[in-house]
Amino acid sequence: MGLQSFVKTPGFKYIKNLAIGVGAAVVLLGALFKLESWEGASEMLIIGLSVEALIFLFLGIIGPEKDYYWEKLYPGLDKYHSHIAPLTAGEIGESHPLDGEVVERQLGSMITELQSMSKSLGALKALQEVDFTGTREQLGAMSNFYKNMTDAMANLSESLDDTRAFKDQLTALNKNLGSLNNVYGNILGAMSSIGR
């Protein structure tokens, strides 16, 4: 365990506060003894001030701890009697205990949104990598194909009309041929009865 990780432990923080308090108490008692001219005042001042000097030297070497300004995230946190709702900004009428299920649901929905955003960004990246250099020519070719297809459909429609007219004419011709056959049959029948 390194020095920095040891300095962050709760045990070190307790020992540091204890040493500062005891050193300050010895210095104050030494000052009281000195003012009252009691015996041992000089020794107490030497011990107390030495402890305080070592503590202040050590505090200067390890540096200050990082400050977190939680009241910016939770407005009202710096007020003693404020009631803060967990995971919300601002004060509420009554305090509520932190609900693990609510936090888990909120974190779960945040993770789902982040995964969705990740997929969307992946799709955008894939779209960015697509080569669109020949797209204009391809769109032009598709436009010509659809135009030719539309013309062919129009021609097919016209030829269907022609086919219907031809079919109607064939039907009429068939009827006429049927009538002619009957007439011809009657003529043949009449001629054969004359020739007898």
Describe the structure.
With 196 residues, the chain is mainly alpha-helical. Helix content is 74%, strand content 0%. Helix 2 (10-35) packs antiparallel against helix 3 (41-62). It is rod-shaped, with a radius of gyration of 52 Å. The protein starts with a helix and ends with a helix. The relative contact order is 0.03.
How many alpha or pi helices?
Answer: 6
Distance between the termini: 141 Å
Structural class: mainly alpha
Strand percent estimate = under 5%
- What is the strand tally? 0
Provide the gyration radius in Å. 52 Å
Describe the sheet with the most strands: none
Question: What is the helix/strand order?
Answer: HHHHHH
How much helicity do the residues have?
over 70%
The shape is: rod-shaped
Low-confidence segments: none
Q: Name the average pLDDT.
A: 75
Helix-strand layout with pairing:
Layout: H1 3-7, H2 10-35, H3 41-62, H4 70-73, H5 100-128, H6 135-194
Helix pairs in contact: 2-3
